[in-house]
Every structure is written in structure tokens, then in C-alpha cells.
Specification:
By secondary structure, this protein is mainly beta. The protein contains two helices and eight strands. It is globular.
Length: 148
């Protein structure tokens, strides 16, 4: 038995996903300021930034990562051009959910693809500028596709 929270990777609801400069420092701040508990973190190849991290804050999940302008055409995540918050949803069928969002007026930001962490994942931007990521578990070992 461990006192570390279970990794709630495919949670229902909408999960905020923050993009920050200094994710490790942000995690320490959220722990001190809000009593957050770190669930997991995945370092980037450079050993300095985090590709992904998850916290539990006040009983709910919060995901965050460092900014990676090199994966987004060299553009940093700055409001209003690229708001630093993504809203994430785990869905039963990403292809259907992606198509529904696009049909309703969302713009394709990243077409669904199998990712290295074991999900089929994609992103849409709503008409108000907010990025929504959608995922469905898929087979592990899939090829990663970068996109923003």
C-alpha cells in the first residue's frame, strides 16, 4: 500500500492542462500553496523540462507541462494567440468525438493518432480560441506524432 494517489489517466469530466515555463517550480508552488499531491511526472529528453505531470488538487486532477515552442512552429504558448490552458477529456471513441467537435465548428488542431503513451489522442480548437484534447486508450508502443 502506498500513500501516493492512483494515476487517474482516463478520468471522466474535463481536466485542465496547464502549459507553464518552469513546470517543476509550478508543481512545488501548487504543493505549498494548495496542498497538491504529485501523482506523476515525465521528464523531457533535455532533462530540464517536463513533457507531462499530474497533480491532485483539492481532490481533482490537474495536468501540466513545460512549454515546447519547438513542437509548435517555434511559437511559445502565449495568450491570446495560444492560451496556456488545454481542456482534456478522456472519451470512449476519439474519432467520433473529434468528428462531432469539428462538425459543430471546432477547428482541427491535431488529427487523432496513436501516441507512445498508449492513447489515441487528438486536439481541436473551439471558436473562442481554447484548445481541447481528446483521448481514448489504444495499444501501447504506438508512434508519437507532435502537434499543437
Amino acid at each position: 500500500m502506498t500513500d501516493r494517489p492512483e494515476y487517474a489517466h482516463n478520468t471522466t469530466g474535463v481536466i485542465p492542462h496547464l502549459v507553464v515555463n518552469g513546470a517543476r517550480e509550478a508543481i512545488e508552488f501548487y504543493i505549498k500553496a494548495f496542498g497538491a499531491t504529485k501523482v506523476m511526472e515525465m521528464p523531457a529528453e533535455d532533462g530540464k523540462r517536463l513533457l507531462h505531470a499530474q497533480l491532485i488538487v483539492n481532490g481533482g486532477p490537474l495536468m501540466l507541462c513545460d512549454d515546447f515552442p519547438e513542437y509548435c512552429g517555434g511559437q511559445p504558448t502565449e495568450y491570446p494567440k495560444r492560451p496556456p490552458v488545454t481542456l482534456h477529456m478522456a472519451v470512449a471513441d476519439i474519432d467520433a468525438a473529434f468528428a462531432q467537435a469539428v462538425a459543430a465548428g471546432a477547428a482541427e488542431a491535431m488529427k487523432p493518432a496513436d501516441m507512445f503513451w498508449g492513447d489515441r489522442y487528438g486536439q481541436v480548437r473551439d471558436p473562442y480560441g481554447h484548445l481541447w484534447s481528446l483521448s481514448t486508450p489504444s495499444k501501447p508502443g504506438a508512434v508519437v506524432t507532435n502537434g499543437c
